[in-house]
Write a structure and sequence with these properties.
This protein is 29% helix and 21% strand. It is an alpha/beta fold and 600 residues long. A hairpin with a 7-residue loop joins strand 4 and strand 5. Helix 1 runs parallel beside helix 11. The termini are far apart. The structure holds flavin-adenine dinucleotide (FAD). Flavin-adenine dinucleotide binds next to helix 1, strand 14, strand 18 and helix 14. This is Prenylcysteine lyase domain-containing protein. InterPro entries: FAD/NAD-bd_sf, Prenylcys_lyase, Prenylcysteine_Oxase1.
């Protein structure tokens, strides 16, 4: 059950915010119902349920909708024609989104019978402001591929290998022992990813022998459409992410449905829309008092799931680690509908020649790339996304729906140029359902950070170790996508759940012997199993083992302890095998650590 208060007047007094809670429930506030906040709520509810921790999670969202930068608008205000305005595509390695799509039974928009094929258009063209440097068709055969090989040599294959290696290292962040991480910078260093985030895409590609032509014509077109950035101003890892396009998909009706489903996934979650949090104030007892519209409420844990600089929120006193304000891309997204196709003359094509469905852009070789500037192509991309019936025209007519990414507003003159038909001022405002342009929606987003090279990242715990003020948006300077925000939310959820578990254990029966790990920290030895008659029993190598639902402890190389993230979802057989392997590995690591200690 999700209770949603849609207006200030509906947000009741302080007590009502936690009306469903058991008296001892952990009170968690999440600020922001985008990918990060929704994922944090969903995963924390799951972790809390599996450790039988009563929890009351309240999500505050100042918008009137769930999804944040992942949202749709309806063409001609017709709910049957929702168009993605923000985050629009995710890919098969985006495990959280893909799993959520499956678990919530959401349908993926069909890729079959693509628009390009139906309309007999090339599917992709890369325009440098003077010519198309590359045009591909879905049905391209071996001869066209051979021509690409001739043009770019082994660069596409090499880039693919580089991308797979970078993505592979990133995927470690989903798994024990890397997950959950407390410090993003240290985690990326351990994964060898700082070497890639610390240089520009241009430097990274050059260092890896990728030809200038392929980098400029293909890879830069991708960094421009995805992050509005030329290769000289985006770090190497985000560059590689732009090339990870396998299994691209989107949810029918809008990707925001994933996040709405997450918020509906547990009765422990309550979502308040139209609810602005203006103050987070730390109390003497370590709790946080939040000012929410015109009311206040107190929470044990607070997750800030939005870039602090855009929250209009004061944290009092200033936390130990205040996230820096960083430059974000100010992106104009223009959606429009027209019965006309893009004009071949606008792209120096012969009359009657088809303009590709997706026109990405890059710079000609002679042009010096500028920061935050699309250069001579004037825009980052223009693409045809759907065909749909404009019921408001008389008579109703079939139209094309386009999306443009640019740094400047798309005016009536630019629309006239792109369509080759006169677009009046009224048309360009979407005021004329029978016009050359029948519907327009404009949005200026602070869409993602300018992904400059960097090797330091914001802290996850703003009040330091032991604090209860968490931040998900630091991940955006590393990779800014729906999936990485969702991963950051899940990570914070796991850290909070672990904290609760370890507090419960710390206050309970066991006295753990401690020894010093290689990092110099005191490390508790494995706790003995708790006697819990409800705990499930597993037989491993003929021996009965009792485990709580969080599964066994893992001894990490540095002596710290963690859990297996997906323990609850493993089959009994997988659990048995894991226990067998883990037992040996833990013993080995413990004796190595003890050995190190005795050498000191
Ligand atoms: C045009 C565009 C295209 C994109 N394309 C893609 C793509 O194809 N694929 C992809 O994976 N990603 C894409 N992205 C990026 C992706 O959308 C974002 O990385 C992701 O949605 C960020 O999620 P988030 O939860 O971290 O932040 P947000 O979505 O920004 O959510 C933060 C939420 O917090 C709320 N909030 C802020 N302050 C307060 C407050 N004080 N009180 C209450 N609520 C508050 C905000 O209203 C917002 O809803 C795109 C983004 C844009 C704009």
């Amino acid at each position: 059950m999700v209770r949603v208060s849609h207006a200030i007047g509906l947000l009741p007094c302080t007590l009502a915010l936690s009306s469903n809670a058991a008296p001892s429930a952990k009170r968690v506030a999440i600020i922001g119902a985008g990918a990060g906040g929704s994922s944090a709520a969903h995963h924390l509810a799951q972790y809390a349920a599996s450790s039988s921790t009563p929890t009351d999670i309240t999500v505050f969202e100042r918008n009137s909708y769930v999804g944040g930068r992942t949202t749709t608008v309806d063409a001609w205000s017709d709910p049957a024609v929702p168009i993605e305005l923000g985050g629009s595509i995710f890919v098969s390695v985006n495990h959280i989104l893909v799993n959520a799509t499956r678990d919530f039974n959401l349908s993926v928009a069909s890729q079959e019978d693509s628009l390009a094929t139906r309309l007999e258009l090339p599917d992709l063209g890369i325009w440098d402001g003077t010519q198309f440097v590359l045009v591909t068709r879905e049905e391209d055969g071996w001869w066209d591929k051979a021509k690409l090989l001739w043009r770019y040599g082994l660069a596409p294959l090499k880039t693919n290998r580089l991308m797979k290696s970078a993505v592979g290292r990133f995927l470690n962040m989903y798994e024990e022992p890397v997950f959950p991480w407390k410090n993003l910078g240290e985690t990326l260093e351990a994964q060898g990813l700082l070497d890639i985030t610390g240089v520009t895409g241009e430097q990274y590609l050059k260092a890896n022998g990728i030809s200038d032509a392929f980098a400029r014509e293909v890879i830069q077109a991708s960094t421009r459409v995805n992050y509005a950035s030329n290769l000289a101003y985006i770090h190497g890892l985000e560059t590689m992410v732009c090339m990870a396009t396998n299994g691209a998909m989107q949810i029918d009706g809008g990707n925001w449905r994933i996040f709405a489903s997450m918020l509906k996934s547990s009765p422990a979650i309550t979502t308040h829309l139209n609810t602005h949090v203006s103050l987070v104030s730390k109390q003497a007892d370590g709790t946080y008092r939040l000012s929410i519209n015109d009311t206040t409420s107190t929470f044990d844990e607070v997750i800030l799931a939005a870039p602090l600089q855009f929250t209009n929120l004061t944290i009092d006193p200033a936390p130990k680690h205040t996230p820096d304000a960083i430059p974000y891309v100010k992106l104009h997204v223009t959606l429009f509908a027209s019965p006309f196709r893009l004009d071949p003359a606008a792209f120096k094509l012969a009359p009657g020649e088809a303009v590709p469905q997706y026109v990405l852009t890059t710079l000609p070789p002679s042009e010096t790339p500028r920061d935050g500037h699309p250069g001579s192509p004037d825009f980052y991309s223009v693409s045809m996304h759907y065909t749909s019936l404009n019921q408001h025209a008389s008579p109703p007519r079939q139209e094309f729906i386009y999306k443009v990414f640019s740094v400047k507003p798309i005016t009536a003159e630019i629309l006239t140029f792109l369509l080759g038909h006169s677009v009046s001022k009224a048309d360009a405002e979407g005021e004329n359902p029978n016009g050359t342009v029948s519907w327009v929606h404009r949005k200026i987003w602070y869409s993602y950070p300018r992904e400059y090279p960097r090797v330091t990242f914001e802290e996850t715990q703003l009040d330091g170790e032991g604090g209860a003020l968490w931040y998900t948006s630091g991940i955006e300077s590393f990779i800014s996508t729906m999936e990485t925000s969702a991963l950051s939310g899940k990570n914070v959820a796991r850290l909070i759940a672990n904290k609760w578990i370890s507090k419960r254990r710390g206050g309970a029966k066991h006295q753990h012997t401690e020894y010093q790990g290689s990092s110099g920290k005191q490390v508790p030895l494995l706790p003995p199993p708790e006697s819990d008659s409800d705990a499930p029993q597993l037989e491993v190598d003929g021996e009965g083992m009792t485990l709580d639902h969080l599964g066994p402890m893992v001894v990490n190389k540095d002596g710290s302890l963690s859990r297996i993230a997906n323990w609850e979802t493993m089959s009994d057989k997988e659990k048995k095998n894991t226990l067998r392997d883990l037992g040996k590995r833990n013993q080995l690591r413990l004796s190595e650590l003890k050995g190190e200690q005795s050498e000191l």
